Amino acid sequence: MACIGHATAPTDRIPCMFRAAVEFFVRLVNYTLSSKMTTPLKRCLSLWEIVVYGVGLILGAGIYVLIGATAGIAGNMLWLSFLVASVVAGFTAMSYAELSSLFPKSAAEFVFARAAFGSDALAWMIGFCAVIIGFTTASAVAVGFAQYLKLFVSIDHLFLAFGLIVLMSLINFWGIKESARFNMVATAIEAGGLMLVIVVGGYQIIDNIIPAADLLALPQQTQNSSHSLLPVVSAGALIFFAYLGFEDIANIAEEAENPQKVLPKAFIYALVISTVIYILIAVVTVSVVPYQVLATAEQPLSLVMETLIGGIAPDIIAIIALFATANTVLITLIVGARMLYGMAQGGALPPLLARVHPGRQTPWPAIVVMALVTLLFLTFRKIEVLASISDVGIFVLFFAVNLSNIVLRYRQPDLVRSWRAPLNIGSFPLISALGALSCLLMLLTINHPVDIFGKQISSLIVGLLIFALAIPAYFLFGRKGPDANMKTS
User: Which of 33, 182, 293, 402 would be 436's cystine partner, CB 3.0–4.6 Å?
Assistant: First the structure.
């Protein structure tokens, strides 16, 4: 109570907020101890709502935060970097679609790996990596939200990021249907902002008010090197962060209506819609503002709108970015909590995390843990560090998912597959093989430097070390013996 009634600086209030949040979350956990563990998640999400979920997360913070940096790498061929990233995502989306039609459960990657490899330890480590990606992604986007909000309020950005995570966790607890409604509103706003850039910029380009950029001009790998496509691929690896989200569709399978038919369509629709919007944005931005200028802009899309119409355009884009980043944090927290819930339901985490509130029908303890660990990752402070960690983890995770689909085609060929990935050579899924190979190649292109204690270390190394924590974590928390609820045959 020492914090009440005293005027303190914003940064001084952060420990008090942590204490109050912990006390609140402890009360929630204590309440769930008396809740029944058999309460099911509520199946209420239609195809349209799931597609909106996927598009909402894909069109989140990445496009607002990273488009300037990627333009500096890929130059006028930024559109091709988006296309490269979408192709890699598309390969993996086909594997997700087939696997989720087979096993429509929460903790999707965990379920896929255990069915494919028959190893609880390996499945646990893969599932744990997916959870870490949720932590780092939610923290990264929360920091991005805070940076935009600082344009309107003079408060420490960590304080603002903390508040957003707590607020979105409360919405997550309130219910999946309420979260879906917030998501639909936020998605409409963020997509509307991107469409505003596309329509206004596209009109001026078509009307020759602004000359179109040379979209086939190859970028230089370095300032004194020859022109090549390598920077385009490197930029594609970085901008891949903007595509994160389509995979999370699999983790709300237990709340989807008719998941075997709905989920494959949702993967495809969400990815295609997002890719079209991204490519159009890329064409407009490099035409309106030179890519060299975009590379140094802290708010590149605000700069584009200021160039196009001036006035209050930067503030409009900033407000839209707030909705986009808040929406991304919400969906990431929702999916991360369902991942924890699914692993606990299968006996891979303490059973407390599998409890569901009988009234709200949401996994309370999993939501609490998701929020607290996400807050802990805010200590990294910088969005580029958190985004790099997420990228490393997601390529490793996607490699495992593609490999799982290949293995299952041979280990369990008699499973009824309501949807199969296209382009097969006999039983061999060529799309999944291309997905696994492309993920490895993209992983090797990650070279963003991370400043740790004054030393520059490759983000690839930092990310691999963090995700390697899955090995000791398994021996600390993992539990052997699959639960009957998680059997896949």
Answer: 402
Q: For residue 60, what is the DSSP state?
A: S
Give residue-wise pLDDT tens across range 38-87. 456 666 677 888 888 778 768 766 787 778 888 888 899 999 999 999 99
DSSP secondary structure string for all residues of 247-279:
GGGGGGGGGBSSHHHHHHHHHHHHHHHHHHHHH
Q: How confident is the model at residue 299 (pLDDT cuts 50, 70, 90)?
A: confident
Residue type (1 letter), 214: D
Give the single-character DSSP code of 237. Answer: H
Rounded to whole angstroms, how far apart are CA atoms 247 and 404?
14
**DSSP string covering 419-479, please?**
S--S-EETTEEHHHHHHHHHHHHHHHT---EEEETTEEEEHHHHHHHHHTTHHHHHHHH--
From CA 52, how far away is CA 246, in angstroms rounded?
A: 10
CA 394 to chain centre: 9
Measured from the Cβ of residue 359, the count of other Cβ atoms closer than 10 Å reads 9
Does this model's pTM top 0.85? My answer is no
In sign, the C-alpha dihedral spanning 362, 368, 373, 374 is: positive
Domain ranges of the chain: 43-216+228-479
Whole-number Å distance between alpha carbons of 96 and 400: 11
Runs of H (alpha helix) within 103-156: 108-117, 120-149
Handedness of CA 206, 210, 215, 216 (dihedral sign): positive
> What dihedral do alpha carbons 99, 104, 110, 114 form, nearest 10°?
-70
Amino acid at the residue 252: I
First to last CA, the chain: 54
Cα separation, 81 vs 218, in Å, equals: 12
How many CB atoms are closer than 10 A to CB 9? 10
* pLDDT tens digit sequence for 339-356: 788 778 877 778 888 888
- Alpha-carbon separation of residue 376 from 130, 136, 139, 160, 351 (angstroms): 17, 10, 9, 14, 23
Cα four-point dihedral sign 294, 299, 300, 302: negative
Residues in the chain: 489
CA–CA separation, 189 and 233 (whole Å): 30
Please tell me what DSSP assigns to residue 382. Answer: -
Closest to 213 measured CA to CA, from 313, 75, 98:
75
Check whether domain 43-216+228-479 has CATH 1.20.1050.10, yes or no: no
List CB contacts of 218: < 8 A, sequence separation 6 or more.
Answer: 75, 77, 227, 228, 229
Work out whether strand 449-452 and strand 428-429 pair parallel, antiparallel, or are unpaired: unpaired
